[in-house]
Amino acid sequence: MRVLVTAGPTREFIDPVRFISNRSSGKMGYAVARAARDRGHEVVLISGPVAARQPPHGVRLVPVVTAAEMLAAVESNLDWCDALLMSAAVADWRPADLSDRKLKKADRLAELRLEPTADILLTIAPRKGSRTFVGFAAETHNLLSEARRKLDRKGLDAIVANDVSRSDAGFDVETNQVVLVTKDGLAQEWPLMSKAAVAERLVAWVETSRGVTASPGKPVPAGLDGAPADGRLTRQMDFIREIDKLKCVFRRTLLMDGSRYENDAEHSWHLAVMAVLLKEYANEPNLDLEQVIKLVLVHDLVEIDAGDTYCYDVAGHLDKAAREQAAADRIFALLPGDQGAVIRRLWEEFEERETPEARFAAALDRVQPLLHNYFTGGQIWAKHGIGSEQVRERNQHVEDGSRALWNYAESLIREAVKQGFLKP
Ligand code: CTP
């Protein structure tokens, strides 16, 4: 496919040094350009001024500044493209008068008269033909109805809507939580993911809607011994590549320094280290440590498809099991049959919490986020209005795997209440 992407803000000048613009960082659009390139498509990226306007390798960059320049660049690349992904935050207004010299304080600019810029998607709508047009809608209110209104008005195939009032989605953050609204009226809510993962899913959606398949430039080579492309090592490598996506599934837990959300791969690694160090606190004296490590390493793999369900999210838990079963069916089937069955069994053992190893693994899986919440001053608890009774109830089963760790967890909860960052 030939994919045209727009990214970043535009600037509308008042005089040679002053302009009006918006908070767009261009991260989403650049991620879309990279994802399209990685999936084997030709990409042209029209970018407004962003911090690092480096074209991703293999992508042709068209730098622009104003909405009018962006419109001209889109118009001149339109015939070439099969799909347009319009993620730029185009300024809606520009100063009605542009001063060609720097205005002075003494000029006493009492008011700034604005006029609308051209709406790019609306202007090019008559030339759409069989092309796929995807818009983006950043909203603070009425997310879905606004997205649907824009989709209809601009004649789009889909619109990616996100709530920019959230701190973990939208402007200048690495993650995004979007709803994809398509022209058949359906709305798919995607889990909180990195912008790279959102971009990949979006490009995959465009491919499916156009009946195109991805042709990533880097196929997994056949086995070193010249084994066939569908051989054992190839399938193992395919799986290894697939689970890289776990690094893009973000949890509702902040890193202990509060700098960003933790991803599922980091969480799993942390549990594995904790298992090695804290084995002596397991209720079962003859615990099989290797089994615990295996359990924690695979326990979240299904979230690659199913997403992270926040532990206090009641609605999310209703269909969690079904989503995770479907994910397990797809992901574990990538491995050779014998290994797929072993890894799936590990995941099931963790979920069932019947064996002492699974109970201890589950205890670690609860204590670790508790530590993160404690060390970040309960920010996430506060954000979701969680109180100490909910935390206690949710984490009670730590006791089934380790009474000692449960005592520790209880002291953390008490201390958090005492320090005032967890509601009593
Ligand atoms: N867009 C565009 N030209 C503009 C403004 C926006 O092509 N002058 C595109 C954006 O790139 C985005 C989509 O339209 O893909 C929706 O942008 P948004 O700013 O949310 O919509 P507006 O039409 O400006 O609506 P409103 O100001 O009412 O929110």
CATH topology of the largest domain: Rossmann fold
How many helices in DSSP terms? 17
The largest pleated sheet is described as: 8 strands, mixed
Architecture (CATH level 2) name of the largest domain:
3-Layer(aba) Sandwich
How many individual β-strands? Answer: 16
Query: Which CATH class of the largest domain is shown?
Result: Alpha Beta
List segments where confidence is low: pLDDT < 50 over at least 5 consecutive residues: 219-225
Strand content: 15-25%
Euclidean distance between termini CA atoms: 56 Å
**Overall 3D shape:** globular
What topology emerges from the helices and strands here?
Elements: E1 2-7, E2 12-15, E3 18-20, H1 27-38, E4 42-47, E5 60-63, H2 67-77, E6 83-86, E7 93-95, E8 114-116, H3 120-124, E9 132-139, H4 143-153, E10 158-163, E11 175-176, E12 178-182, E13 187-189, E14 193-194, H5 195-210, H6 232-242, E15 250-254, E16 261-263, H7 264-278, H8 289-298, H9 303-306, H10 314-318, H11 320-332, H12 337-352, H13 356-375, H14 379-384, H15 388-395, H16 398-401, H17 403-418
Parallel strand pairs: 1-4, 1-6, 4-5, 6-9, 9-10
Antiparallel strand pairs: 2-3, 7-8, 10-12, 11-14, 12-13, 15-16
The chain binds cytidine-5'-triphosphate.
Cytidine-5'-triphosphate binds at residues 67, 86, 88, 90, 92, 117, 119-121, 135-138, 150.
